[in-house]
Design goal:
Strand content: 5-15%
Helix content: 40-55%
Strand order of the largest sheet: 3-4-2-5-1-6-7
Radius of gyration: 17 Å
Largest sheet: 7 strands, mixed
CATH class: Alpha Beta
Number of domains: 1
Length: 268
């Protein structure tokens, strides 16, 4: 698969990153795409929301074991269908996470450590149209593993001061030649900044939205993803937005539009 791995990140937590991964995966699946979600966050929110939480009584292989191995193609051992019904289980697969992924951070200094996810995915995600990698809210080893494997970086930007700063650091980090050399990925490109959890009623959000084109470039700021209670409800219940009926229509339309633009950009 050429050019279709996207790492979604921000150096700040709570910006709607995992929600974007999950809901974009759903929109892409509804559009007929096959999607692999790689959960690189030890909080494992994307895994749970896609119906694949880690259960100690029934342990399964997770991304932690995949990275510890670092063998070519090792990711195939951890792929499972998402836990949703219908077309989703047919079109969305997951490499789930769990809390012990943090243990991989101590291995950062090992020779070739930053390329372990890249090697593990080699030949594995060729059968998917898109691979979405959910990064933790940091620029440390786990995010570097994701960026080493990715073709594109997509920043989720909550329109508040810390959210904008965190997205800027994520963008600048992947634009640094030293970073690219360190992670062994000189073809990594910044795809876009996507405003997330936007509440148009808040003056602060309106202000920060107006500053984004100057920070990221007008062509690299996409349409915002709204803050809606139905999105949180779907996340809490580990359900796709489509399962919540008509009250999710606006949120689904926003994610559908972003998924369409993403697809067009990475296949242009």
């Amino acid at each position: 698969m050429a050019g279709r791995r996207i790492a979604l990140g921000n150096n700040k937590g709570g910006v709607g990153k995992s929600g974007a991964v999950v809901n974009l995966a759903a929109s892409l699946a509804e559009a007929g795409r096959r999607v692999l979600v790689v959960d690189m966050d030890p909080q494992a929110n994307a895994s749970r929301r896609l119906g694949r939480p880690y259960r100690p009584e029934n342990p399964t292989v997770t991304v932690s074991e995949v990275i510890r191995s670092g063998e070519t193609g090792a990711a195939s051992d951890a792929i499972v269908p998402c836990g949703w019904d219908g077309i989703y289980t047919l079109r969305i697969d997951v490499i789930p996470s769990r809390f012990d992924l943090e243990n991989r951070i101590s291995e950062a200094a090992a020779t070739g450590a930053k390329r372990r996810l890249t090697r593990a995915l080699e030949g594995v995600d060729d059968r998917y149209d898109v691979t979405l990698i959910d990064c933790p809210p940091s620029l440390g080893h786990l995010t570097q593993l994701a960026l080493s494997a990715a073709d594109w970086g997509l920043a989720l930007v909550e329109p508040e001061y810390d959210g904008v700063e965190g997205a800027t650091r994520f963008r600048d980090f992947m634009a640094d030649p030293e970073t690219l050399a360190d992670v062994g990925n000189d073809h990594l490109r910044f795809l876009a900044a996507v405003p997330s959890k936007v509440d148009a009623r808040l003056g602060g959000h309106t202000h920060h939205l107006s500053t984004l084109p100057a920070i990221f470039g007008p062509d690299l700021v996409w349409e915002p993803l709204p803050q809606r209670s139905v999105i949180k409800d779907a996340a809490d219940e580990a359900l796709p937005l489509s399962a919540l009926g008509s009250r999710a229509s606006e949120a689904r339309a926003a994610y559908d539009a972003t998924a369409l633009r993403l697809w067009k950009e990475i296949t242009a």
